[in-house]
Amino acid sequence: MLDIQQTLIDDEAGPSWLADFQTANNNLWSSQNWPTRKTESWKYTSLKAIETGGYRPRSAINSGSDQAQANGAVSGSVIESVIASSRIEGLETIDVVFVNGAFSPSLSSVDTLPSGVELCLFSQANSQQQADIREHLGSVAKAEQHVFVALNGGQLKDGVFVKVQKNTVVDNPVRVLWITTQQKQSLALAQRLLVVVEEGAKASIVEQFVSSEEEQNCFTHGVTELVLQDNSKLFHYRLHQEQEKTALVSGVHAKLLRSATLESFYLAFGGTIKRLDVVVDHQGQGAHCEMNGVYLPRNSQHVDFHTCIEHAVPHCTTNEVFRGIIGDSAKAVFNGRIHIHKDAQKTLAQLSNKNLLTSNKAEIDTKPELEIYADDVQCAHGATVAQLDEMSLHYLRTRGVSTEEAKVMLSFGFINALVDQVHHQAIANYLRPILANLFAQDPELMRHIA
Amino acid sequence: MLSIQNLHANVDDKHILKGLNLEIKPGEVHAIMGPNGSGKSTLGHVLSGRDGYEVTDGAVQFLEKDLLEMETEERAREGLFLAFQYPVEIPGVSNMEFLKASVDAVRAHRGEDALDSVAFMKKAREFCKAVDLNQDFLKRGVNEGFSGGEKKRNEIMQMMLLQPRLAILDETDSGLDIDALQVVAEGVNSLRAADRSFIVVTHYQRLLNYIQPDYVHVLAGGKIVKSGGKELALELEEKGYGWLENEVA
Ligand SMILES: Nc1ncnc2c1ncn2[C@@H]1O[C@H](COP(=O)(O)OP(=O)(O)OP(=O)(O)O)[C@@H](O)[C@H]1O
Ligand SMILES: [Mg+2]
């Protein structure tokens, strides 16, 4: 085990009923190698920022003389402005809010839950909930395959558990808001979410990662596990809107049982390092996954999406579209894997990844990986790096729109084409102005979009 | 209005327009016909200033100004409008945002006040109705998933919004059903005015029954090889282009 692996370990114990889970994960963390650029799945993403960032778990700081500083109260006005800018107008949400890793009861709204919805912190789970958590936790995200899942499992002190009971249809999304602010000492934070949507139930989850505007010095390692039981449906949103110095390695791991549908949308601004592993496991026939995502790194930011869709059984479908705009000297990595096992006949799987580079120093490494072991399947898979479409640009200009504004409109449109497909209109409406802002420094140029 | 002298243009180093001359006065409607691949759309693209269409010789004046010196968007703001043979689909940019940007740019250039969104919507709805397009089209992506005929009607609707001085309609009649053809023709006719001119590129004499041209030209081999009145269109319909071969050569 390397020093860096040691320094990320938290001595403080989690809930006692999770002790064996933690021990198992800790063992996997210590026994697995720290990824380097020679590790295939980390070829294009360096972990140097984490190695040299001095991130420590809170307990390591608390036990030292820095305790008072590290715990320094966060100014109310800072939090207020983060809350305001993350508010999704027109969407009534059940909020679960964390500030620098700590649950904030006052900012959350979990006291009254719709009937059929259970929501609790691991630390406050009743015995039935503890049993549910133990049944599902770690059943989707595989610590032996993902070293940071092992880290997270070993370190987690708490987490959020959501269960949507059989045949329950919940309109209001549960929103897990993960807020970080600038710290005196660089912090390593464990974030964990477990969602179980029972048979025939339908629900929505919004995971929103935001920060104050100052330079960030938190490293969040997170794991979200989604269990979709037979005939269930889940809308899942992951919005990564943090300030650009944020470090994050996070995974979303979903398991789809018979005829379950997962509709997800990802948005990621870049960070010092931002790595997202998205794994969808089709385990029941007739399961369907609709996944759209956009990433928009700028300046010298980095963002890395590794998606992996496992088709283990017949008659499942996947429709995955990711688009990126990479500006300045930013770098993006997209690795889209679709694995069709030999029994997965009649699979329909499509993956498209399109990238726009808006500067000649911007970089994208995109790699589609299609592995098919079944013969009766329909798959399409493509990755492109493109410029703005010349014909579209010309068309807008022939209508009098200036070249600059036309470029802003087209860049926005390239991303907005996916935002348009988002199921919850309020979320699309919330995102559009934020995105429009990215493409135009000059407000004149964005006044016709969003 | 428009004066083209000895226009030569290359596309991808291929010589397409080979000495084209054309004079259009205010209020006139000129029809251009001609075989496939003869350069009709190329003329539209060159006049609109599309990148990659290189003018190698000749001159073009539009409203007494040197057209070829202007950027594409300036040409549009000065009052040149091109209805595309193949209108472009732009998913993610809504028709409404696009039209507002366009109208704002053109009005600002003319020194007119910007339309507020209520006034704009009123006009947009009015012209949608005029070309028989459902208002829902305003919310959709630019031409996204529009049928062939809907795209053409959208072009005419844009023309009505922008009130150009010179409109070039490149095969706006192709792919239209009979009712749509009439709708489009009425749209054009409603804009006919003493200070507005049209170039109507078409393969079919039928359109010219609805939009009566002052002149008919045959473009072949990159230049105008024959000009006449509207009876020329009838003659072409009957005889095809073969008999003009001598003039092409
Ligand atoms: N990018 C290009 N590179 C090479 N040749 C081109 C290019 N674009 C057009 N051409 C050629 O230029 C010629 C003129 O094309 P144009 O589209 O102007 O014809 P047209 O008269 O509009 O024909 P149609 O009646 O079929 O619309 C054709 O031979 C076409 O193949
Ligand atoms: Mg043509």
Give a quick set of tags describing it.
heterodimer, A: 450 residues, alpha/beta, ten-stranded mixed beta sheet, 20 strands, B: 249 residues, six-stranded mixed beta sheet, four-stranded antiparallel beta sheet, globular, binds adenosine-5'-triphosphate, binds magnesium ion
Describe this protein's structure:
The complex is a heterodimer of chains A (450) and B (249). With 450 residues, chain A is an alpha/beta fold. Chain A has one domain (3-387). Helix content of chain A is 23%, strand content 36%. Chain A has helices at residues 3-7, 19-31, 48-52, 58-62, 67-70, 76-86, 127-136, 147-155, 390-397, 403-419, 425-439, and strands spanning 56-57, 94-99, 102-103, 117-121, 160-164, 174-180, 187-197, 202-211, 218-228, 233-240, 247-256, 261-269, 273-282, 288-296, 302-311, 317-326, 331-340, 348-357, 363-372, 378-386. In chain A, the strands form two sheets. In chain A, strands 1, 4, 5, 7, 9, 11, 13, 15, 17 and 19 form a ten-stranded mixed beta sheet that branches. A ten-stranded mixed beta sheet of chain A has the order 3-2-6-8-10-12-14-16-18-20, with helices on one face. In chain A, helix 9 crosses helix 10 (403-419) and helix 10 (403-419) runs antiparallel to helix 11 (425-439). Chain B is α/β, with parallel strands linked by helices. In chain B, 37% of the residues lie in helices and 29% in strands. Chain B contains nine helices and twelve strands. Chain B has helices at residues 40-48, 72-78, 95-109, 117-130, 148-162, 178-191, 205-210, 231-239, 245-248, and strands at 2-11, 14-24, 29-33, 53-62, 65-66, 80-83, 90-94, 141-142, 166-170, 197-201, 215-220, 223-228. Chain B has a six-stranded mixed beta sheet with strand order 6-9-10-3-11-12, sandwiched between helices. In chain B, strands 2-1-4-5 form a four-stranded antiparallel beta sheet. In chain B, helix 6 links the parallel strand 9 and strand 10. The model of chain B has no long low-confidence stretch (mean pLDDT 91). Chain A binds chain B through residues 389-392, 394-403, 405-406, 409-410, 412-420, 448-449, and chain B through 48-52, 71-73, 75-77, 81-82, 84, 87-88, 90-93, 97-98, 100-102, 104-106, 109, 141-142, 158, 162. The structure holds adenosine-5'-triphosphate (ATP) and magnesium ion. Magnesium ion binds at residues 40-41, 85, 170-171 of chain B.
